[in-house]
Backbone:
C-alpha cells in the first residue's frame, strides 16, 4: 500500500494547515505535494524570516522547518517562536539531512517538538506529521478551554466588581454624620466582597444610631447576607418593627429574622444609639467585641459584654448599657480582623497594641488617627490585606 494513501489525520472537522519552510525549491515542492496528498492545506516559505512572518499571521497547525536556510535558520525560528507568547504553543518539526544525536539534542533544546530526517521514509513522514497534528489539536483544545475559562472568569470578576460597588454604596459618607458628630471610616475586605458592614442613621430629630456587623465566613454569600441585613437596619425598615431607638429591641428583631443557617452561618453585631439632648450612648451587642470609647484625655473604655451571636437562641434578649458622652470623646467600632491581625510569626496584634496606637494618635484629627491605626496593624501583619475583613468606623463628638 502506498503510504501517501493512508488515512488522513483526524485532528478536527476543518482541514489542518501545515507551513513548510525550506529554501530548496525541489525539496519543498516534493514535501508539499506529499502533504497535500494527505489532505492538508500547505503554506510555503523560502527562508526562516519569511516563514516566521507567515507563522505569526496564519497560525498553522504545524510548521516544518529546514535546519539550514538563509536569513534565519530553523533552530533560530524555533527560538523566536518559543519567546513569543502569541505563538509559543505552535508545533514545530525540524528537518535536516544531518540527523546526528548531538544535532537532534540541539534542535529539541532550541524549541523544536520533533525531528525529521530528509532521508525519512514516507511512512515515517506520515506518522510524524500525524502525531504532531494530534498534539496541535490537543493544544488548540486546551487553549480554547483556557480562553473560555478566562472569559468566564472575566465575567465573574465584572459581576464581583459590580457587587463590591453595591456593598460600598451601603456605607455612609465620610464627614459630618449629623450636627455635632464627625465620622470617618476605613473599609478593607479580605476578598473582593466583605461581610463586615457598618452605618450611621438618624432615628428622629433628637437621636441617631450606628452599628457594625460581621457575617461569618468570607466571599459572595456572606457579603450578600450582610447586605440584606444592612438593608433591614435602615431606619425606615426598623420603624415598622420597633417603636423607639432601642439597640436591644433592634437585636431582638434581628435575632428573629436572621437565625443560624443550615451551614452554620451567623452574624455578630454591635448597635449603639445616641441622644443629642442627654448626650447618652446606649448600646447592645450580640457577640461583637470590637467597640470602644476613647475619652478626650486619651483613656479607653471597651464597650462590650459577653453574648452569643445572632441566631443561636431564638428567644435571646440583650443587655442595654448606657454611657455618658463628653465633648471630644470618640467612639470607634472595628472588625476583629484588625486586632487579630497576625504577624508572620503567628502572634496576633492584640488589643493592647491597638490601645497604645490609639493613645499615641489621640491629638491627631480623626481622619488621620484611623489611617495611622490601620497602618500600624498592616505593619504588624506585613501586608495591607488581612486574613479577615478589616472595617473601622470612628465617630467624634463635638457637643
Residues:
Amino acid at each position: 500500500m502506498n503510504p501517501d494513501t493512508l488515512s488522513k489525520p483526524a485532528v478536527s472537522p476543518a482541514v489542518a494547515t501545515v507551513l513548510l519552510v525550506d529554501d530548496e525549491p525541489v525539496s519543498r515542492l516534493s514535501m508539499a505535494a506529499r502533504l497535500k496528498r494527505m489532505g492538508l492545506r500547505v503554506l510555503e516559505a523560502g527562508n526562516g524570516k519569511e516563514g516566521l512572518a507567515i507563522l505569526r499571521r496564519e497560525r498553522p497547525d504545524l510548521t516544518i522547518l529546514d535546519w539550514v536556510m538563509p536569513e534565519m535558520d530553523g533552530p533560530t525560528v524555533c527560538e523566536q517562536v518559543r519567546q513569543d507568547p502569541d505563538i509559543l504553543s505552535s508545533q514545530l518539526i525540524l528537518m535536516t539531512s544531518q540527523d546526528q544525536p548531538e544535532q537532534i539534542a540541539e534542535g529539541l533544546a532550541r524549541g523544536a517538538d520533533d525531528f525529521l530526517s530528509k532521508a525519512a521514509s514516507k511512512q515515517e513522514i506520515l506518522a510524524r506529521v500525524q502525531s504532531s497534528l494530534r498534539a496541535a489539536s490537543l493544544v488548540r483544545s486546551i487553549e480554547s478551554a483556557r480562553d473560555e475559562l478566562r472569559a468566564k472568569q472575566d465575567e465573574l470578576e465584572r459581576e464581583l466588581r459590580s457587587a463590591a460597588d453595591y456593598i460600598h454604596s451601603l456605607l455612609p459618607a465620610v464627614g459630618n454624620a449629623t450636627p455635632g458628630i464627625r465620622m470617618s471610616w476605613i473599609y478593607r475586605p479580605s476578598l473582593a466582597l466583605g461581610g463586615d458592614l457598618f452605618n450611621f442613621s438618624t432615628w428622629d430629630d433628637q437621636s441617631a444610631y450606628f452599628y457594625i456587623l460581621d457575617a461569618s465566613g468570607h466571599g459572595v454569600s456572606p457579603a450578600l447576607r450582610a447586605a440584606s441585613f444592612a438593608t433591614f437596619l435602615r431606619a425606615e425598615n426598623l420603624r415598622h418593627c420597633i417603636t423607639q431607638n432601642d439597640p436591644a429591641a433592634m437585636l431582638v428583631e434581628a435575632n428573629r429574622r436572621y437565625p443560624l443557617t443550615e451551614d452554620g452561618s451567623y452574624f455578630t453585631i454591635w448597635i449603639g444609639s445616641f441622644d443629642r439632648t442627654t448626650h447618652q450612648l446606649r448600646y447592645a451587642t450580640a457577640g461583637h467585641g470590637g467597640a470602644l470609647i476613647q475619652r478626650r484625655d486619651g483613656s479607653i473604655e471597651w464597650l462590650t459584654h459577653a453574648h452569643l451571636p445572632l441566631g443561636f437562641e431564638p428567644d435571646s434578649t440583650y443587655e442595654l448599657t448606657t454611657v455618658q458622652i463628653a465633648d471630644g470623646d470618640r467612639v470607634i467600632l472595628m472588625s476583629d480582623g484588625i486586632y487579630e491581625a497576625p504577624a508572620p510569626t503567628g502572634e496576633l496584634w492584640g488589643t493592647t497594641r491597638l490601645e497604645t496606637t490609639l493613645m499615641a494618635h489621640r491629638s491627631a484629627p480623626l481622619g488621620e488617627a484611623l489611617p495611622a491605626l490601620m497602618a500600624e496593624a498592616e505593619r504588624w501583619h506585613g501586608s495591607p490585606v488581612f486574613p479577615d475583613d478589616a472595617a473601622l468606623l470612628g465617630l467624634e463628638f463635638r457637643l
Residues 3-145 form a domain with the Rossmann fold fold (CATH 3.40.50.2300). The first helix runs from residue 25 to 37. The two ends are 102 Å apart (CA to CA).
